[in-house]
Amino acid sequence: MERDLVEYIAKSLVDYPDEVTVNMIEGEKSTILELRVSDDDIGKVIGKHGRIAKAVRTILSASSTRDGKRCVLEILD
């Protein structure tokens, strides 16, 4: 669920949606989502002063609290 949400948001923001990949690493109490986008699109995903990345993390946190797990978003370059 969270993986699909991050992928959808990222694909909506970037110029090259085909290059968006989200890798999910499951742990006992937390889940790590690794987001990888094109080098040209990294700024669009992070935003000015990290505002877009913070907003995506907030949405992800709200979505994951119902499962009782913590979700962490890592944007890889």
UniProtKB/TrEMBL annotation:
GO terms for biological process: cell wall organization; peptidoglycan biosynthetic process; regulation of cell shape. Gene3D superfamilies: 3.30.300.20. CDD domains: KH-II_YlqC-like (cd22533). Keywords: Cell shape, Cell wall biogenesis/degradation, Chaperone, Cytoplasm, RNA-binding. Belongs to the KhpA RNA-binding protein family. A probable RNA chaperone. Forms a complex with KhpB which binds to cellular RNA and controls its expression. Plays a role in peptidoglycan (PG) homeostasis and cell length regulation. This is RNA-binding protein KhpA. It comes from Spirochaeta isovalerica. The gene is khpA.
